[in-house]
């Protein structure tokens, strides 16, 4: 055979392996033969283990199956549309401010311990996190006092 004829074929009509010819029982000869053999052993052991326990047994052990009733989509949308908002809107007579949380709340003795995000001062509420650096608060005397002092000077 010449170089132009392409790779030389083995006795079974296939190209020889890059790692070298196969030896007995699926072992590979060559520089990566030991690695290929250990991977093949692990693959065979995993497949045998899965066949013994059933292919989905390990997966099924991770979860509890429960029967749930069918969800009526129309009824669900009706309930969602009829629900009142979780957070009541503050009355008009309350003083709502948007403040930097690091400047006020995180420095304040009335700020609740994590993981809660709340003000423990009576009459003062944190309504929402408006962005990652700001809270919307209601009737905070610390904020009102700072604003009053700024107006003086």
From TrEMBL:
Domain DUF8135 stretches: 97-146
Residue segments, region Disordered: 1-96
InterPro entries, per database record: DUF8135
Pfam families recorded: DUF8135 (PF26456)
Biased composition (Basic and acidic residues): 39-55, 65-82
UniProt protein name: DUF8135 domain-containing protein
